[in-house]
Design goal:
This protein is mainly beta and 331 residues long. The chain has no helices and 25 strands. The strands form six sheets. Strands 19-20-21-22-25 form a five-stranded antiparallel beta sheet, with no helix packed on it. Strands 2-1-24-23 form a four-stranded antiparallel beta sheet, with no helix packed on it.
Length: 331
């Protein structure tokens, strides 16, 4: 994981985290940070303890200690619902809440269903489980895509966007929307990224680097507020767009375009203004982008693989694009 900080004039690499920072043995593949989330000054990263097939997945908690990101805690599945490989299949954080989804973790009326576990810190900052929800009206997700904002938790499961709402007894499904029909072309759309912010859910597509913005506050359904097409991005000097990876915080939206060759991927920044997102800045990354997130004034990027010696990023190139001669809202 590459932690970047925003400074005057752009973004700088603050620290790189890998499986050794999780204090886990690197036997085989430890799958470090195949699922991760960030909230303020806390980073959560899933890893397989020991790296062996069937070994339990755990979630490492990283916090800034004396200006350095360090592991401070490890979270585990509820023993009653432990299934190898499923804990942390979806992972999302917001403020003082972390939601962890585990698919196929329990049988409900003869069908395998998921478990959604909610964690929160106590007065000493120690995270512990405060809620566990199972049942037919819970979908923990099956693609690793999840987003949490306040009382809404969104996942992608079985080709659908699923939005949960928090109720006194836990979580319950509020909206579902098929993803495939969002693309009008011959190839059905599939999900590549997911974000929640201020009553909006943003879905990034695998086809055409499209992004879709929906209203989660509507009394019924998920009305679309905006489509962000590839031709709305600043001009690129490479071949056509790849998948759109999305992150949102407040009025700020980041879209990372996935590519598999050094120097190609680009991260774009948008601001919500007058009922739509408008692009204002882009960053040409020096290495492959597998994920992008915003939180606490920092952008968190995931590298294509976890081996800390296998990737040496080139210097980033900063590009700026103005809309109508001025930025929509200063960041």
């Amino acid at each position: 994981l590459y932690v970047h900080a925003r400074v005057a004039g752009g973004w700088v690499l603050e620290q790189r985290l890998d499986v050794f920072d999780a204090l886990a043995p690197q036997t085989g593949t430890s799958a470090f940070a195949d699922r991760w989330a960030v909230a303020g000054e806390t980073i959560f990263a899933r890893y397989r303890d020991g790296g062996l097939q069937g070994a339990p997945h755990r979630v490492a908690v990283f916090e800034r200690v004396a200006g350095v990101w360090q592991k401070t805690q490890t979270l585990d599945a509820d023993p009653a619902f432990f299934v190898p490989g499923t804990f942390g299949a979806t992972l999302a954080a917001d403020g003082d809440a972390l939601v962890v989804g585990s698919y196929d973790a329990v049988a409900f009326q003869g069908f395998a269903t998921g478990v959604i576990e909610t964690f929160a810190p106590d007065a000493q900052g120690v995270w512990s489980r405060v809620d566990l929800t199972t049942g037919s009206n819970v979908d923990a997700g099956d693609r690793g895509l999840a987003a949490l904002r306040g009382d809404h938790f969104a996942v992608v499961s079985n080709g659908e966007l699923v939005v949960h709402e928090r109720i006194p007894t836990g979580w319950t499904v509020q909206h579902t929307l098929p993803v495939g029909p969002l693309e009008a072309g011959p190839t059905p759309q599939t999900a590549a990224g997911l974000a929640l912010t201020d009553g909006r859910v943003v879905l990034g597509g695998d086809v055409g680097a499209m992004a879709y913005v929906f209203d989660v506050t509507a009394p019924s359904g998920l009305p679309m507020l905006q489509e962000i097409a590839a031709d709305e991005f600043p001009a690129r000097d490479i071949n056509g767009p790849f998948a759109a990876l999305v992150a949102a915080e407040g009025d700020l939206l980041a879209i990372g375009v996935r590519a598999d060759l050094e120097g190609q991927p680009t991260i774009r920044f948008f601001e919500w203004y007058d009922g739509r997102y408008r692009a204002f800045e882009s960053l040409r990354a020096g290495a492959g982008v597998d994920a992008v997130a915003l939180g606490g004034g920092r952008a968190l990027l995931a590298a294509p693989w976890s081996d800390p010696g296998a990737l040496v990023p080139a210097d980033a190139r900063l590009e700026v694009r103005r809309l109508d001669g001025a930025r929509a809202v200063p960041y």
